[in-house]
Design a protein that fits this description.
With 205 residues, the chain is of the alpha/beta class. It has a single domain (2-204), classed as Flavodoxin domain (Rossmann fold, 3-Layer(aba) Sandwich). It has eight helices and eight strands. It has a six-stranded parallel beta sheet, with helices on both faces. β7, α8 (176-192) and β8 (202-204) form a beta-alpha-beta unit. α1 (15-27) runs parallel beside α8 (176-192). The radius of gyration is 17 Å and the shape is globular. The protein starts with a strand and ends with a strand.
């Protein structure tokens, strides 16, 4: 089976990239036939700006822009989509949000042309979310940030398209001991990626 790991961070030496690499290493265990592709949105120069061409696609007035079609093809080749990102202002970075804005387009991720009824088109795609934050779990829980993120990302984006969020994790804290635990957690996520069932949603905050 094949996983597409999408990373949104400009620094290759960041914890975000380290987590993505360890997760990929867990997928590619010796004796396993699984494969992965890492989509580094920053290094690849993906344009997150939602422009008139994207609006025309949404309205079914013009074909999908070529860069968006290429990203959709990447997802179509995958059995699982893994998003690895730093938490900016209690959400995902603008680069990753723009990728979703443009790539999860009307007619591909969902279809709203059926008399106001939304047809969810990504029920076949298992999604795994790995957010990386500097604040501690107590802060997220006390302010309700963890629940708010799940509402806007897990449910607001992926449930709208019918894509089951199999795992939604927040790796919090940046001390050396915490980083070591995060990297091992990432490797475990990779090892278990294709063992997880879409009916068993794991949430660790």
């Amino acid at each position: 089976m094949h996983a597409l790991i999408v990373v949104a961070h400009p620094d290759q030496g960041s914890l975000t990239h380290s987590v993505a690499r360890h997760l990929a290493g867990g997928i590619a265990q010796p004796g396993e036939a699984h494969s992965f592709e890492i989509a580094d949105l920053s290094a690849e120069g993906f344009d997150p700006g939602f422009k008139l061409a994207d609006l025309a696609t949404h309205r079914r007035e013009s074909p999908i822009p070529s860069d968006v079609a290429a990203e959709q093809a990447r997802i179509d080749r995958a059995d699982a989509l893994v998003l690895v990102y730093p938490v900016y202002w209690w959400s995902m970075p603008g680069l990753l949000k723009g990728w979703i804005d443009r790539v999860f387009s009307n007619g591909w991720a969902y279809d709203d042309s059926q008399g106001g009824k939304i047809v969810k088109k990504l029920g076949h795609l298992n999604v795994h979310l790995v957010g990386i934050g500097g604040a501690d779990a107590r802060t997220y829980a006390r302010r309700g940030y963890d629940a708010a993120m799940k509402t806007q990302i897990d449910h607001g984006i992926f449930d709208y398209c019918g894509a089951p969020v199999v795992a939604s994790e927040l790796l919090l804290g940046s001390e050396a001991a915490e980083v070591s635990v995060h990297l091992e957690t990432a490797r475990s996520i990779g090892r278990d990626l294709f063992r997880a069932s879409s009916s068993q949603v794991t949430e660790i905050a």
